[in-house]
Structures are given as C-alpha cells and as structure tokens.
C-alpha cells in the first residue's frame, strides 16, 4: 500500500471514530461490527 493510501486510511479511521463516538443504535437494529475486507486485520 502506498504511503498516501495508508495516510488516508488512518485519517478516515480517526474521523469515523469521532463521528461514531456516542452513537446510539436502537435495539431493533441488527449490526455487524469490525468486518474484515481482506487479509489486513487492522483494516
């Protein structure tokens, strides 16, 4: 992965965490968290 792609991925992850902090999901919603989209466990 290029340095630029890695930087974008890290920044987007930080922004997603800020956006999702305190998010309330209703009990009636079925959710799937931490889905892996390849061999990289951090992605």
Model description:
By secondary structure, the chain is mainly α. The protein is built from 1 helix and no strands. The model has no long low-confidence stretch (mean pLDDT 85).
Keywords:
1 helix; 42% helix; 0% strand
Overall pLDDT metric: 85
The end-to-end span amounts to 12 Å
The number of E-state strands comes to 0
**Main β sheet profile:** none
Assign the structural class, choosing from mainly alpha, mainly beta, alpha/beta, alpha+beta, or little secondary structure. mainly alpha
Helical content stands at: 40-55%
Uncertain regions: pLDDT < 50 for 5+ in a row? Answer: none
- The SSE order reads H
Note the overall shape: flat
What layout of secondary structure does this protein have?
Blueprint: H1 3-20
């Amino acid at each position: 992965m290029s340095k630029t792609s890695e930087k974008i991925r890290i920044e987007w992850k930080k922004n997603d965490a800020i956006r999702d902090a305190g998010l309330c999901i209703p009990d009636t919603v079925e959710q799937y968290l931490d889905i892996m989209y390849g061999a990289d466990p951090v992605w």
